[in-house]
UniProtKB/TrEMBL annotation:
Native organism: Anoxybacteroides voinovskiense
Gene3D superfamilies: NAD(P)-binding Rossmann-like Domain
Pfam family, any one: Epimerase
NAD-dependent epimerase/dehydratase domain residues: 13-148
Domain of life according to the entry: Bacteria
GO biological process, one term: galactose metabolic process
UniProt similarity note: Belongs to the NAD(P)-dependent epimerase/dehydratase family.
Keywords from the UniProt entry: Carbohydrate metabolism, Galactose metabolism
SUPFAM superfamilies, A to Z: NAD(P)-binding Rossmann-fold domains
Lineage: Bacteria, Bacillati, Bacillota, Bacilli, Bacillales
Pathway: Carbohydrate metabolism; galactose metabolism
Protein name: UDP-glucose 4-epimerase
Length: 148
């Protein structure tokens, strides 16, 4: 989440607290938990949210899709709902090249069809579709980055 002094909300399910820059405000919390999110939006004048948090192991997503739809889709919905409540309308989303599946072209461009082949890729594509709907309905400004 961004305001002039950057604030960061993470549950540390992966990653390390010591890697967070000292200039950032760090809050250990879960995006799926409104009780963790709302105090941050209350306290800081957040202008935009950069959303990196996810589970992102393709193999694990095949074995345990519930974890992926719960954490990547449902928790992101809670974040988006909280943003709307606090009138934060700018969102940058970490999606994935896994949304493309296995394209039959060598050079993948942004307008290649999406056809994810695993729950991880599908969970990210679902959020992309939700973002498009939120842009139409609520005026959300968003950018999607499909990292390779
Ligand atoms: N690393 C890559 O090559 C790659 C490629 C494509 C897309 N991405 C995407 O980029 C983003 C970051 O990837 P990464 O490799 O840095 O992953 P990572 O696992 O290192 O970092 C994800 C962070 O999100 C946190 N997190 C997960 N669920 C959370 C929740 N519900 N609430 C709060 N915090 C939560 C974890 O604790 C972790 O610190 C992810 O969204 C991932 O899908 C990464």
């Amino acid at each position: 989440m961004l305001h002039r002094k950057r604030s960061l909300c993470c549950n540390l399910s992966t990653g390390h607290r010591y890697l967070v820059d000292d200039r950032a405000v760090f809050v250990q919390g879960d995006l799926g938990n409104k009780a963790d999110l709302e105090p941050i939006f209350e306290k800081y004048p957040i202008q935009a949210v950069i959303h990196f948090a996810a589970n992102s192991l393709v193999g694990e997503s095949v074995v345990n899709p519930l974890k992926y739809y719960q954490n990547n889709v449902a928790a992101t919905l809670t974040l988006l709902e909280t943003m709307l409540k606090y009138n934060v309308k700018n969102f940058i989303f970490s999606s994935t090249a896994a949304t493309y599946g296995i394209p039959n072209v060598e050079l993948i461009t942004e307008d290649c069809p999406t056809n994810p082949i695993n729950p991880y890729g599908r969970s990210k594509l679902m959020i992309e579709q939700i973002l498009a709907d939120f842009a139409s309905a609520y005026g959300l400004n968003y950018v999607v980055l499909r990292y390779f």
